[in-house]
Write a structure and sequence with these properties.
single chain; alpha+beta; five-stranded antiparallel beta sheet; 5 strands; elongated
């Protein structure tokens, strides 16, 4: 019995250490992370996610609360736009709950009239036997990258329209 107690204690320490490492990974970095179950209830979220909602909209997420409640509270747009946003999110989550990982970019208008862009991943959290009951979500702020891409597109379009408006004949050669 003493040997079993020692072994049990050793296993408990290993589990606690593993949980501490996983929590450190979950909380470190710049990603917003959260997970929801099939009822769209929060099962977890990291401090970055909490800080993002709180600093932009004064919303505090809570475990076992409805994901879409936070979406409604954090959405300062008109009710019709809110319904469209909720419909899009539900479609994306339904795809993920069908086993199809989702990757998309989201434009966010903050209450202080800033535009933010996030790259978001929704993935099933598979259990050992291959089933899943939860979806993990990760979001990364890509605002500067997106603005650079949009500026590059605008410059390319401007150059193309200038070039196409020329009356002269132009060609390029490698000789």
């Amino acid at each position: 019995q003493v040997a079993l107690a020692i072994e049990r204690k050793r296993n408990e320490v290993q589990i606690n250490n593993q949980n501490a490492r996983l929590k450190a990974i979950f909380e470190s970095g710049s990603h917003l992370m959260w997970s929801v179950n099939r009822e769209y209830l929060f099962t977890s979220f990291n401090q970055n996610y909490t800080n993002f909602l709180s600093s932009n909209w004064g919303v505090q997420p809570e475990l076992n609360t409805y994901f879409f409640d936070n979406l409604i509270l954090s959405n300062s747009r008109q009710p019709v736009e809110q319904e469209n946003d909720m419909r899009v999110w539900q479609e994306l989550y339904n795809k993920a709950f069908a086993g199809e990982p989702c990757h998309f970019e989201l434009r966010i208008n903050t209450p202080d009239n800033q535009i933010r862009w996030q790259e978001i991943f929704l993935n099933p959290i598979y259990l050992e036997h291959g089933s899943f009951e939860e979806i993990s979500a990760m979001a990364l702020d890509i605002t500067e990258k997106k603005f650079s891409e949009l500026a590059l597109q605008e410059n390319e379009e401007k150059f193309r329209s200038i070039f196409e408006s020329f009356q002269d004949l132009y060609y390029q050669t490698s000789i």
